[in-house]
Amino acid sequence: MLVRLLYASRPAVQTDIDVIAILQQARRHNPAAGITGVLCHNERLYLQVLEGGRAQVNLLYGRIMADTRHTDVTLLRYEDISERRYAGWTMGQTNLDKLNPGTLLRYSALPEFDPYSLGGDSSLALIDELMNAAAVLGRA
Predict the structure, then answer these.
(1) pTM of the full predicted structure?
(2) Exposed e or buried b for every residue in 6-21, given b needs 16+ CB within 10 A?
(3) Hey, where are the domains in the chain?
(4) Mean pLDDT, to the nearest integer, of 65-92?
């Protein structure tokens, strides 16, 4: 059974080193676990979508919730899926600070990205648009 999980969190202490470390760790460990996805980030938040087997995704999400680099970890969406959307990324990434305000306004009432108030459907649609616009980097 494949699942897709979308969550938001805030960095405990924002540094570029943390983002690099998270991406390196994901790209090193996700292939063996069959996990794919995308990490969207800026200095104030992380938004990440994970896809893979139910047990593997649940285990990884548990690790993320216990990871001291994250605070305010909030599940935005969890669903069974028949196929992956992000199969090409062991962990793609995009910097939300480079997001076009016009793109953001398609999904949000304000030109500031806040997945906590935006919700899972809109956040996932935004990630899909970024992927289709080639704004997601790190294709495996």
Answers:
(1) 0.88
(2) bbbbbbeebeeebbee
(3) 2-132
(4) 91
Residue with tokens 């016009």: 102
| Maximum CA extent, the chain | 39
What end-to-end distance do the CA atoms of the chain give, in Å? Answer: 23
Q: For strands 36-41 and 2-11, give the pairing.
A: unpaired
Tokens describing residue 126: 């935004």
The pair of structure tokens assigned to 91 is 């962990």
Stretch (H or E) spanning 48: strand 46-53
CB atoms within 10 A of CB 57: 21
Domain at 2-132: CATH architecture: 2-Layer Sandwich (3.30)
Cα separation, 2 vs 35, in Å, equals 10
| Ranges 14-23, 53-62, 83-92, most confident | 53-62
Between CA 90 and CA 131, with CA 126 as vertex, the angle to 5 degrees is: 40
